[in-house]
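Appendix C: a fully annotated inverse folding record. The material below is reproduced so that readers can follow the format used throughout the book. The structure is listed first as tokens, followed by the designed sequence.
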């Protein structure tokens, strides 16, 4: 089981070694920093996705919400609004999108996959209407956010580090974090234990929404423009990063650090290495998907192993105690 938990780190190390041997300049400091900067947006979105996956849910709307956040920020920036106002508006967009998903899933009882698929289309359609399906080139003030440094560290990396530290602390050191894991492991048992499962499930969609919006702002600052395809398929990159980092699709198992962070860096590392090697662009999704398949297989193996151990533990507890009265489990009714 320990080997399965360390799989994300092993996969990342293998990829680094392979690309380092094939292209020595891949391991240059400037390129490694570039990988971290480029993966920051995906990592931020994937952190929010991890919260949702831990409750055995899914959020397919994060890419569309990134688009809405970027469109709103772009409109405000082009209208002359201060950058601080755009940032506040982006957070508000994330809260609104997350609350909408939470309402659909917890209040209306719609399956998360269907609910977030629906909001994906609604939000992308709204963003296309807002931008009039045209690309928006943003002023230098927005681009400065992507190139700025704080104590020599790129600002996107600083933002990622802050969100990552907060998320890791919440999941590992607070009752709320433990309740998220409990809900993902067994929703009914968590409800019987007195956990407000509805509120927990609703809250993770809000967290995911805010992370998606902030991730959209970081991506916007790096690209400097909002196009009609902004954020397309980012939900799959976020899910892949979380799964590559060891988060279970069945809920109740995973961590944002180092797990999800490693997953996001791994995806960007593969793309960066293939670019340096001048590989055929058509190979990019094939190789990335192959790595994701390996991660999913490891996740399935880990889940099966946990289930097997649980069954063995039940058998041991039901075995007769030497020198004591035998304990019999009720046999199922043959009828």
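Designed amino acids, in order:
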């Amino acid at each position: 089981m320990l080997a399965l938990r360390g799989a994300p780190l092993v996969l990342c190390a293998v990829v680094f070694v392979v690309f380092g041997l094939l292209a020595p300049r891949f391991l240059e400091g400037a390129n490694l920093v570039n990988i971290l900067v480029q993966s920051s947006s995906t990592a931020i979105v994937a952190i929010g996705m991890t919260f949702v996956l831990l409750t055995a849910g899914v959020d397919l709307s994060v890419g569309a919400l990134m688009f809405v956040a970027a469109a709103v920020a772009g409109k405000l920036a082009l209208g002359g609004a201060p950058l601080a106002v755009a940032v506040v508006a982006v957070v508000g967009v994330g809260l609104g999108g997350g609350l909408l998903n939470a309402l659909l899933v917890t209040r209306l009882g719609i399956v998360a996959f269907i609910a977030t698929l629906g909001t994906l289309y609604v939000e992308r359609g709204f963003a296309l209407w807002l931008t009039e399906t045209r690309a928006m080139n943003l002023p230098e003030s927005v681009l400065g956010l992507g190139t700025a440094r704080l104590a020599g560290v790129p600002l996107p990396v600083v933002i990622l580090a802050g969100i990552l530290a907060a998320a890791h602390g919440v999941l590992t050191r607070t009752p709320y974090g433990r309740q998220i894991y409990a809900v993902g492991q067994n929703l009914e048992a968590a409800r019987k234990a007195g956990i407000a499962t509805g509120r927990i499930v609703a809250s993770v969609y809000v967290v995911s929404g805010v992370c998606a919006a902030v991730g959209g702002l970081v991506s916007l600052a790096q690209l400097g423009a909002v196009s009609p395809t902004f954020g397309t398929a980012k939900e799959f990159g976020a899910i892949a990063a979380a799964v590559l980092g060891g988060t279970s699709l069945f809920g109740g198992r995973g961590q944002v650090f180092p797990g999800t962070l490693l997953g996001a860096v791994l995806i960007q590392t593969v793309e960066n290495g293939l670019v340096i090697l001048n590989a055929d662009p058509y190979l990019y999704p094939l190789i990335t998907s192959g790595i994701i398949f390996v991660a999913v297989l490891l996740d399935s193996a880990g889940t099966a192993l946990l289930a097997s151990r649980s069954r063995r533990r039940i058998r041991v507890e039901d075995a007769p105690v030497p020198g004591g009265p035998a304990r019999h489990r009720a046999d199922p009714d043959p009828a």
